[in-house]
Amino acid sequence: MKITFSLLAAGLLALALPAAVLAQDIQHPVLPLYAGSVPDSKPSQVQETSTTEGNRITVANVVQPTLTVYLPAPNQATGTAVIICPGGGYARLAMGHEGYDVAKRLNEMGVAAFVLKYRLPNTRSQPDPSIAPLLDAQQALRLVRAQASQYHINPERIGIMGFSAGGHLAATAATHFARPVGSNPGPESVRPAFAVLLYPVISFSDSLMHKGSRDNLLGATASAAQIREYSNELQVTSQTPPVFLVHAEDDTVVPVGNSLAFYQALARHKVPAEMHLYPKGGHGFGMNNSTTQDQWIERLREWLAANGWLTK
């Protein structure tokens, strides 16, 4: 792989890198999410697997969650950051077209991006599989906020983005921040400044759910209380951060009703929200909905700019 990088940018990055870095790629270091033991984990024979087909990089059986860092050029940096949660039905992670590719595009806007490789629910390696993904998303928010100065990020301008089931995780982070999960959550805020949700799983209700996501996270015999807790349209409050939504109306995997229900809940609580619906596009299109010339990533750039998040 050929890497071209200005001496100035390389120097700034070298100063910014924390001591614990899992990969020595000066462009995109990989950070362990936890400095010590991973909470809600237990010894197991589970081993991470990865497959690559073109830009489609898929990871499963995550045991050690990480953040891959994508920083904009120093002269373009706005101080805003986004944590990206790839989708995959809580069974796998689409790290390429719903992770790394998006991070590169955000960098072009001057936005720092952190691709989250979060743990997927697994009874073999986790005492409580239902909280493992949210533990990791909340820890990602803590970690980026704690290291904001090293990355030249405004700690009040850290958002979260998610695709499909990653959208459910991002929406959960945007609605469950007042009661962080885990036995020792710590005092740091885990509220994101904003949420960007692409064809997201929102509801676990029978009428709207993506069954695979619900069963993988909560099990096939989830209680009514669990289903309600993780139906994020029911968890919106006036404190929920602003939200940007994208969905295709012909999505047969995650019904568009998920985004509609979330938007309606946001409107009821007077939470600023913008939603873009496309007649076609199906599910899992990443940044490129080939059925339209409109690019949702450009609409996102305009939304970020309108809210002041692209102002240096």
Q: What about the largest sheet?
A: 8 strands, mixed
By CATH, the topology is Rossmann fold
CATH top level is Alpha Beta
Mean pLDDT: 91
Q: Structural class of the helices, strands and pairings?
A: alpha/beta
- Give the proportion of residues in helices: 25-40%
Strand content: 15-25%
In what order do the strands lie side by side in the largest sheet?
1-4-7-5-8-9-10-11
Instruction: Let me know the CATH homologous superfamily.
Output: Alpha/Beta hydrolase fold, catalytic domain
How many domains is the backbone divided into? 1
Shape: globular
Q: How many beta-strand segments?
A: 11
Count, helices: 8
* Low-confidence blocks of residues: 1-24
**CATH 2nd-level architecture:** 3-Layer(aba) Sandwich
Structural Rg: 18 Å
Distance between the termini: 32 Å
- H/E order of the elements? HEEEEEEHEHEHEHHEHEH
